[in-house]
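Lab notebook, page 48
Experiment: co-folding of the full assembly
Goal: obtain a model of how the components sit together before planning crosslinking
Operator: M.T.
Materials (sequences as entered):
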Amino acid sequence: MAISPKKSSERMSRIINVGDQLPEFVVPSVDPARMKTMAAILRDPYRVHWDREATREMGLDGRVINQGPLNLSYIVNMLHAFAGPTSIRRLTVSFARPVFDGDLVVAGGEVTDVQDSVLVCRVWLKRGDEVVVSGTAVVDVAALASVSS
Amino acid sequence: MSNSTSPLGYRFPGGRYTIAHWENWLLTDCTTAQALPENLAHPVSLFHVPILGAGTSIAELFEICGAEGPGSVGLDGYDWEYMHPLRVGVEYRMEGGIVRWENLVDERDQPYDSMSFSIEMFDGSELVARITNTWRFRRKKVVSA
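Observation: model returned without errors.
Model output:
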């Protein structure tokens, strides 16, 4: 069962259960211009993020590769929409496949454990049915509880 | 299997880093989200802030680990712990180094080196965050004559 990210009062009025699905965060088209800005912020010299010639050399048809932190950020944004901007306690993720400019990706998650106000969630980023990032997030929803009280 | 020298045990110089407002705004925009309230920095700042704050860089890590051009570096995983939210305008202190180095072979029998580095981030004496990132450095297979 999905939990609404929009209505905090509604959200806190119900019990969060193991197996609950987190609301998805959708990126309709990964933007190569954002990769360029991100490369500058990160001081990242790896050409595959901003130089189409570099990925042509790799046989990837000139599509640039999204930075790992940006792939993870979509999962973070999904968690923020659900649990608030100070909720994240731990992120443990692995990167299975590269994400390219123009890809449509969807971040999602599922509650796997609940201990007081702390949730453990399985999280992922998918391109279609393909999982490109997967892992575990620990989030504290105590701040939401205080908002609702 | 690998033609690179193990950098295991390499310690970063250490140092300090303050997340600037403009930097956080642009980074958050890159994630397709809007800036967070109350000077909160986007949690994905925990990629570049520890690296730069520890006195190293992605370029230096590539050099230390012998990166061999486009396609030779891959991400394996991150383990990021947040003891406190990150904030814009706070001067953080960082220390860390390379904590793991293994010569491995992938499922296609291609050799690579797996490297993990770990950095702790402090506000004064208080631990704010800890990261361990694992990167993969693919190697050209050496064919015997």
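Interpretation: The two ends of chain B are 15 Å apart (CA to CA).
Next step: discuss with group before ordering constructs.
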